[in-house]
Amino acid sequence: MPVTSDAYRPFESVNVPDLVGVVEDRLTQAIVQGRLPPGSRVVEAEIARQMAISRAPVREASRRLERQGILVSKPRRGFFVREMSVREIDDLFQVRLSLELTAVAAACQQADAAGLARLKDLLALMIDEAADAPQHRRIELDLSFHTLICELSGNAYLLRLFSSTQTEMRMIISLIDNVYQDPEMVAATHQPILDALARRDVEAAQACMKVHLDDAWQHVRNLFVSQHGAEGGKPGSAAKP
């Protein structure tokens, strides 16, 4: 898939010690915001030129993203943004559901008053900005709400596992136009989860979380199929240059 020069505009010159980390972050942002769409090639020379650095940090950042499953490499062709499939959407949501049901149950027992207040403030911000915020902002707030629940579980391993799924979740959402057709309603669907957490009601919290994630799963899946077909990209594949 051809990529316009606009895709590389975020890669301005940098002069910091951790060049690889900076390049990794900027590549990730370009991917999850759809500026480097699935199947597109990572042009190391162009990124290096715009950032005024050598190609080595760009290559190492690409290797890091390959290890995370975000990029795939083709011998003698370079790195490409991984394409997604319906199967991968299903797999990702299954993992996410398992993690978040565990997280919300633990948060009912572990979250303190300050943590619940943070969650309440975040939800208020989500609802307040729902009507006017751009899609990428809504996505960030939505994922921040779920990440905070994982944090409030007190389980650092669970939080790391959940965080590791977020780039791929953003990649999927970036492929879908108008994923939040009624953003105010979507924001409000988080309220029952917060209410159950505040009551320390594990059973209700898990039930609300399951309904919420099942609805999101079906919605994202249906939109992906309608816009990209039932097959989507082959799992782990990249389009030929």
From TrEMBL:
A molecular function GO annotation: DNA binding
Taxonomy, superkingdom: Bacteria
All copies of domain HTH gntR-type, residue ranges: 17-84
Protein name in the entry: GntR family transcriptional regulator
CDD domains cross-referenced by the UniProt entry: WHTH_GntR (cd07377)
Xref: SMART domains: FCD, HTH_GNTR
Annotated keywords: DNA-binding, Transcription, Transcription regulation
